[in-house]
TrEMBL record:
Residues 7-238 form the Diiron non-heme beta-hydroxylase N-terminal domain. This is Metal-dependent hydrolase. GO terms for molecular function: hydrolase activity. It comes from Enhygromyxa salina. One of its GO terms (cellular component) is cytoplasm. PANTHER family: N-ACYL-PHOSPHATIDYLETHANOLAMINE-HYDROLYZING PHOSPHOLIPASE D (PTHR15032).
């Protein structure tokens, strides 16, 4: 008699944490993580302890949603005080590292005036000796290059601070999460092993393939789930008709004639032929018995040949989804960047640190061959507040006899770029373009990394803005696509924790996208703004 299998539930949420804070891409690299600790997390806790009612109220005020608020009931302020004290004690070394980085930046900017850098090496703070190079650019502006390969192998990288918070979700709504730590008294179960551990692959493979019921406790032990939480851990699993994959049945295996495109929400799009699967910017919804229709875990192939990431922002490089898909992913494709700077750490090294092994870097206008097609990195301008960041690419995918451009949040700051691109790639069957017409101020995304705060006027001017109506239409004019889909708008109901959109505050992008869709349709171009779930078949001989 075979062992009874149980399955990880489709509504089992898994949030990666660093030092018990929900983690983004900025919390993995050692230097960036330390700077966020000192410049974001600790100030947030101190502010909350001083005014817990203010934080609680602001987190529930529509116009302020997504701001720097610790979303914890004021009745728990004593618990937060304890967390703050514990963090300050536990994190002394990383706090000192961040201060040393700031000290080194100040030293270089004051003492490097165009002469040789060599005398300055003796003045580098001891924690950073041997981990940096001091350089000039060709305009004699000094800067520090961090040797990331060494830093990831140094005491400054502390994977033991990583963990995963597990709980079942009741519904799609999730409050903004990145400014609030997970407390011991929260209902989450904490898996206290580093993110690179292969035991997570076993856990998340159980959502699809199951695990013998008798091994669930063993799995919990290997995840370092506390003994008192083991009952709760067992409740994350189910058997029989209630299991996600048993309920949905075997994945549909109808032969794919041409190219199938499936939309999973935000910028997550799966392209499939009979030969290959390519998934862009995975951010998946959890299964729910009611609510908006969705494509989710059960709608992905058993093996994902390529995951392709457009840029190093948390709604496109999403740790929560990537960790849960790691066991299914054969290769991850990323824009090539040099790394070594605070604002633009190595994309490849970040992924390697969290357990991905086959990572392919592609430079602008370079291509990689796929079964029956090709993937090419295209320039991606804007949406990074004018910082010198190269970890971003739009992608041209040729597959199944068709071609698509996934432009993500590209801002059309220079329409001539798309004339050059058209001359190389030709006309496009499908254009997917995000339209974050206003964008957040620079400090919202990069505030924890700034060595000197920007004046408010400049912070408001330098935004993470994508294409507006005029910019989007100029791209359409130059690429001449047959279909246009406006995506990556953050409108799905399950994205509130990641992109807290508030209609009266953030509606310009929707209004601009409506205009783009209407103008495209008037020209005879198929256009839409997919929401939650969609499927498109492109077949030879069809329109």
């Amino acid at each position: 008699m075979s062992e009874e299998l149980v399955y990880l539930r489709g509504d089992a949420c898994a949030r990666p944490l660093v030092s018990r804070w929900p983690a983004t891409e900025q919390h993995i690299p050692p230097i960036q993580s330390a700077l966020n600790l000192v410049n974001v997390w600790l100030p947030l806790l101190r502010s909350y302890v001083e005014a817990p009612e203010y934080h609680w109220k602001a987190a529930r005020t529509p116009a302020l949603i997504g701001g720097p608020w610790v979303d914890i009931d004021p009745a728990r302020v004593a618990e937060v005080e304890t967390v703050l004290e514990a963090m300050q004690a536990r994190e002394r070394e990383r706090i000192a590292l961040a201060r040393d980085v700031e000290q080194l930046d100040a030293l270089v900017r004051s003492a490097a005036t165009g002469g040789s850098m060599t005398p300055l090496y003796a003045r580098i703070p001891p924690r950073l000796r041997g981990y940096v190079e001091l350089v000039y650019d060709l305009a004699n502006s000094p800067r520090v290059r961090f040797l990331e390969g060494l830093l990831y192998r140094s005491p400054h990288y502390v994977p033991e601070l990583q963990s995963v918070a597990l709980r079942r979700l009741a519904g799609d709504h999730r409050a903004p999460q990145f400014t609030t730590p997970v407390l011991d008294s929260d209902p989450d179960l904490c898996a206290s092993v580093p993110l690179a551990s292969e035991v997570y692959d076993e856990l998340f493979a159980a959502r699809r393939h199951g695990v013998p019921r008798a091994r669930v406790d063993e799995l919990g032990e290997r995840l370092a789930i506390s003994a008192e939480d083991r009952v709760g851990f067992r409740e994350l699993f189910t058997a029989g008709a209630d299991a996600t994959f048993a309920r949905s049945g075997p994945r549909e295996t109808t032969p794919i004639d041409g190219l199938r495109m499936r939309y999973f929400g935000h910028a997550c799009v799966l392209f499939e032929t009979d030969e290959v699967s390519v998934l862009f910017d995975p951010v998946l919804a959890y299964e729910q018995p009611s609510g908006a229709p969705r494509n989710s875990w059960s709608d992905l192939p058993d093996t994902i040949d390529y995951v392709v990431l457009t840029h190093y922002h948390k709604d496109h490089f999403n740790l929560e989804t990537l960790l849960q898909l790691r066991h299914q992913i054969l290769r991850v494709v990323v824009p090539k960047n040099t790394g070594g700077t605070v604002e633009d750490p190595s994309f490849r090294r970040t992924l390697a640190a969290i357990g991905f092994s086959e990572i392919i870097e592609v430079d602008e206008l370079e291509s990689i061959a796929l079964a029956g097609g090709e993937l090419t990195a295209l320039p991606f301008l804007g949406e990074h507040a004018d910082l010198d960041i190269s970890s971003k690419a739009a992608w041209h995918l040729r597959l199944g006899g068709f071609c698509a451009v996934c432009a993500a949040d590209s801002a059309n700051v220079d329409p001539e770029l798309y004339a050059h691109i058209h001359a190389i790639v030709g006309e496009v069957d499908v254009l997917l373009l995000g339209m974050e017409s206003v964008g957040a101020p620079l400090s919202t995304t990069y505030g924890g990394l700034l060595f000197r705060p920007l004046p408010r006027t400049l912070d408001q001017e330098r935004r993470t803005t994508g294409s507006d109506y005029a910019g989007a239409m100029a791209i359409v004019d130059r690429l001449r696509p047959r279909r246009v889909y406006i995506y990556a708008m953050g409108l799905e109901p399950w994205l509130g924790h990641l992109l807290p959109i508030e209609a009266s505050r953030d509606g310009q992008g929707v209004a601009d996208s409506d205009r783009v869709i209407a103008d495209c349709r008037r020209r005879g171009i198929i256009a839409d703004r997919p929401h939650c779930a969609a499927e498109l078949w492109l077949r030879n001989g069809s329109d």
